[in-house]
Amino acid sequence: MRQKILKELLQNRDSFISGSQLGERLGISRVAIWKHIEALKEEGYDINGVSGRGYQLEDSGIIIPDEIMAGLPQQLIGSQIYYYPRLDSTNEALKRSIKDHLSEGTVYVAGKQEEGKGRRGRKWESPSGGLWFSFLLRPTLSLPQTALLSLVFAVSLVKSLDVFSGSLCQIKWPNDVYCQGKKIAGILLEMSGEIDNADYLIVGIGINVNVRKNDFPAAIAASSTSLLEVNGREIDADEVLLTVLKDLDSYYQEFLKNGFSDIRLEFKSRCLHLGKVIETVRGQDIIRGINTDIDEMGNLMVQCQDDLLRISTGDVKVLN
Predict the structure, then answer these.
(1) ∠ CA 269-273-279 to the nearest 5 degrees?
(2) CA distance 301 to 267
(3) For labelling alongside 19, which of 101, 129, 172, 287 has CA 20 to 30 A away?
(4) pTM
(5) How far apart are CA 188 and CA 7, in angstroms?
(6) 204 phi/psi in degrees, rounded to 5
(7) Residue 215: its pLDDT value, please?
(8) Are 267 and 283 in contact (CB under 8 A)?
(9) C-alpha distances in angstroms, 224 versus 2, 103, 184, 221?
(10) How far is C-alpha 75 from the chain's CA centre?
(11) d(CA 181, CA 170)
(12) Residue 15, Cβ neighbours under 10 Å: how many?
């Protein structure tokens, strides 16, 4: 019933809707509506109630799980979806829930993250208007093969965001997504297991959907963008999530069936620094050279004068 109330509030978010109107549409009493509204507020939903006018949902980025799942029949990723108005981190919330025997493909979506996680232990800024979600996989792959999923899902994500950005998005190795030269999305993989098999994999994805320029923290404002900034209008977060989950599942199944070869070619075609001079760090050394290739294990190949170096982890800075 609460999801039905949220759906009604979303459909009428530009105006107030009275408890009596909600009760008539849903076939329950006005008192029952009030109790459900109060429970939704306790869960963290921002619902404004005004005497004599009714209720209005303040946050337009709400995801209705049942509606998303209805658009994902017969697919693994998104087979179960849970939406939370506020979490510390969708990755951490999934980790805590693994002991509850969550099914593979389960997705957690957060309206806001208070302690979002980025690569290499960094904080992932999660301002209002973004799409922040994580999903659980249990791949029967070696850890090196599992690590390739970072690149596989990056390719999937650029394909999805092309639909909403109106332009070709690009990838900065290994899995940051850029649009018009600025970062618009990122991916974080966290896995647990032995060298020959991952017990589980949690994939966290953050997409700047309706984040306004002034809402980006000062440290990343100049290098970040959103679908809102690119298009000049708001994009429905549920449409973005539905498209992204479809493509994630499609590329995951393709990878399991046919491996990385064809997806590697797609990655290379979208890599924003392939053939350019880059800088990265390996151990204590700063590596500068031309990024000549992405190899079959997803490593960065960098030509430094007479040496061809293979880089497996690190951050890339494009120098030209």
Answers:
(1) 150
(2) 14
(3) 129
(4) 0.87
(5) 31
(6) -105, 135
(7) 87
(8) no
(9) 35, 34, 6, 5
(10) 18
(11) 8
(12) 8
Report the distance separating Cα 135 and Cα 294, nearest Å. 26
What span, in angstroms and rounded, lies between the C-alpha atoms of 17 and 49?
Answer: 9
CA atoms within 13 A on the CB side of 62: 26
Do the Cβ atoms of 20 and 30 come closer than 8 Å? yes
Query: pLDDT (tens digit, 9 = 90+) per residue, 187-227?
Result: 999 988 665 667 899 999 999 999 998 888 888 889 999 99
CATH of 2-57, picked from 1.10.238.10, 3.40.430.10, 3.40.640.10, 1.10.10.10, is 1.10.10.10
107-159 residue pLDDT tens: 999 988 876 555 445 555 567 789 999 999 999 898 889 999 999 999 999 99
Instruction: Look up residue 102 and give its DSSP letter.
Output: P
Q: Which of 96, 110, 208 is nearest to 161 (CA)?
A: 208
Residue 298: closest CA among 201, 133, 174 = 174
Q: How far is 9 from 45, CA to CA, in rounded Å?
A: 11
The DSSP output letter for 234 is -
Contact 157, 243 (CB under 8 A): no
Q: Directed axis angle between helix 30-43 and helix 19-26, to 10°?
A: 100
CATH topology of domain 273-318: SH3 type barrels. (2.30.30)
The domains of the chain are located at: 2-57, 65-269, 273-318
CATH (residue range 65-269)? 3.30.930.10
Q: How confident is the model at residue 186 (pLDDT cuts 50, 70, 90)?
A: very high
Structure tokens belonging to residue 182: 């600025």
